[in-house]
Amino acid sequence: MPKQIYDVTISADEPFLGKNQIMKKNVLIVYAHPEPASLTRQLVELSVQTLQEQGHKVVLSDLYAMNWKAVFDENDFPSRANPNRLSFVTESGHAYSNGLQTVDVEAEQQKLLAADAVILQFPLWWFGMPAILKGWVDRVFAYGLAYGYKGEGNRYRYGDGGLKGKRGILSVTVGGPVADYLPRGINGPLDQLLFPITHGMLFFAGMEVLPTYAVYGTGSITAAGVSAVKAAWCSRLECLFDEAPMPFRRQNGGDYPDSHVLANHVAIGQTGLLAHIAEERDSLDALAWSEDHHNANVATERHRDEPLAVGDGESPTGAR
């Protein structure tokens, strides 16, 4: 796909295009994979093409191509509030509120603030996102923006905050088979492995988070498998602004009276991560998503003797 497709300028909100047409939105894609031939890269290119065909404005942050600085350190604060001791919360808030951030961080924040939806596309490496993408979150999600909103500490978080009103979704490629990530699979359910990202980063900052799109078995995926997962991803993108988000419980929605612990009458008998997901989600929507998700990955399990080269696997070990 030609590189020109990424050279898109964000514009202000635009009105409806006409009868039976959708309103144009701004979409930010943050992408982390160093291999141009990887399946992750193919899905990124498909994302750009599909969203542009729908009339949306797309901006891409290709972190490896940008040589993004992943390490969050004293160099992020050229003008310190306290030069004697580095406190990341203090310095992040000072830099953000006084326009003293580094140029690269400020540029990414402008993309983020202009976006109606954010897509994070990456391979699953050691059960999480690549370090370069984690570094993007560390540096861009500043105090005063993604946390500590309005200088109110933890008052605006988990459903509220500086990124409220935006949608977020993860598109993740996984080297291992889907069986490893079933409820009783040896690796554990993927949704729970990614909970620190979906709930702890995106929802914490106020975003509505859509169910993750995952592709399993990428280490031995076939041409038929690639076609199937691309078709399924296109379907998800077509519903990017209509799909029901994951029903995470909002901190300020009444379930956490002290803003810390669930009320006694909420999620009775439940503990752990799943207790923080409400039960009101439309079961038909959830079932439809599960069917698409499963069908897309069935193809990756077929014809294991005919793998398609899509890069050096989707993790450092080639097994996840």
Structure report:
The protein is 29% helix and 10% strand. The protein has 320 residues and is an alpha/beta fold. It has a single domain, classed as Rossmann fold, CATH 3.40.50.360. Strands 1, 2, 3, 4, 5 and 6 form a 6-stranded parallel beta sheet that branches. Helix 1 (39-53) runs parallel beside helix 7 (223-238) and helix 7 (223-238) runs antiparallel to helix 8. It is globular. The protein starts with 25 loop residues before the first strand and ends in a 22-residue tail after the last helix. Mean pLDDT is 84; it is low at 1-20, 281-296, 298-314 and 316-320.
Counted up, domains total: 1
Number of strands: 6
Shape call: globular
The whole-angstrom Rg is 20 Å
Mean pLDDT: 84
CATH fold group: Rossmann fold
Total count of helical runs of at least 4 residues: 8
Low-confidence runs: 1-20, 281-296, 298-314, 316-320
Q: Pairing-aware structural class of the strands and helices?
A: alpha/beta
The helix content, as a percent range, equals 25-40%
- What percentage of amino acids are in beta strands? 5-15%
Architecture, CATH level 2? Answer: 3-Layer(aba) Sandwich
